[in-house]
């Protein structure tokens, strides 16, 4: 275990926001190291903030905590049958590398979730999802340690209370535990999920037209190509992906919205509610491609806020707040920020 006092976090968040933390602990594979780090934080009166690759956080200012970077590695086969495999994956593994590995082994299911930045340990926090698939369909168990007591904990999928970009780890158990490993059950064969329109259009352009012969590997490659063509690379344009969640409206709210806006795109959910693309609401309010000093809204992707230079987290959040106010004023919809916000604005 290595602990650094007053460490810079600029290279540990994909928005490249400059902020410091009280202490930065880097923990490797040895189980004892994690317990030692949690004990160190307790003895020094610091709360613990686990951080993966920092692709879903906004650092509003300095973080008065011991930031914990868990870099444990390893993928263990727990059970294997002719139809499925159960795997235990260390939290410190990179998500995309794990997805790539799983397909190479002939396990399927995760192909639509290719190229999502971040670690395996962070993936359950917001139940990552893309192109019509959510992580929760493949998770069987989450392993963790309580940040205060270092006690080992386990959660079944049901106990994780997964929902759209949400879980118990963002709510009742927010900031209380560090996820150490995740168990997945992956099928050895399954029909690919191709109903998401942008994906099905791209698959139709493949030789063979994405018919019965479509492999999970072909879906994986198509998702990677789609994402590379559409989403800004944080290394060149620092961002945290979608800054706002897509709002989900009741039928009544949707009727009122669509009466005034006949062209609003809408996606009915299984529970009867209707999801609206936040990007459309933001674009209608004229914010797409808007630039304010070093922060702005991406020109091709209205959901993505970008740090174009030396934006502070506070300035970025001020921009987000102005966008939220405009959307609320025009559509009576409260946009919710998707990434987790930490730190106090610097004086
Ligand atoms: P971090 O940003 O480091 O942390 C996020 C939260 O998880 C924090 O609250 C942190 O405290 C907590 N956390 C991290 N690790 C642990 C742990 N081991 N134990 C306990 N808590 C932990 N998300 C999607 O759902 N779908 C997408 O398609 C998608 N695309 C993206 C594209 C881009 C370009 C970017 C920048 C982001 C995108 N995201 C997407 C968001 C992000 O990639 C995911 O939320 C990812 O799971 C975050 O992983 P991370 O390791 O970077 O987490
Ligand atoms: P897109 O295809 O341009 O679609 C825009 C939005 O409409 C998406 O957010 C998506 O919601 C919704 N949508 C489109 N078709 C849908 C359908 N058939 N059913 C339900 N909802 C539908 O999206 P994009 O920006 O290029 O992103 C592609 C995928 O990657 C999306 O799933 C998106 O969520 C994911 N992504 C997420 C992040 C993040 O940080 N969270 C960043 C980049 C991309 P959903 O978001 O619910 O899918």
Can you offer a commentary on this structure?
The chain is 24% helix and 27% strand. It is α+β, with helices and mostly antiparallel strands. The chain is globular and about 60 Å long. The two termini are 32 Å apart. The mean pLDDT is 96. Residues 14, 49-57, 70, 91, 116-119, 121-123, 125-126, 128-130, 178-179, 231, 234, 239-241, 340 line the site of flavin-adenine dinucleotide.
Query: Which regions contain 5 or more consecutive residues with pLDDT less than 50?
Result: none
Find the count of extended strands (DSSP E, 2+ residues).
Answer: 20
Q: Name the strands of the widest sheet in spatial order.
A: 6-7-12-10-11
Range of strand content: 25-35%
Nearest-angstrom radius of gyration? 21 Å
Q: DSSP helix count? A: 7
Q: Which structural class is indicated by helix and strand composition? A: alpha+beta
Bound molecules: flavin-adenine dinucleotide, NADP nicotinamide-adenine-dinucleotide phosphate
Q: Let me know the average pLDDT.
A: 96
Biggest beta-sheet profile: 5 strands, antiparallel
Order of helices and strands: EEHEEEEEHEEEEEHHEEHEEHEEEHE
Distance N terminus to C terminus?
Answer: 32 Å
Helix fraction, binned, reads 10-25%
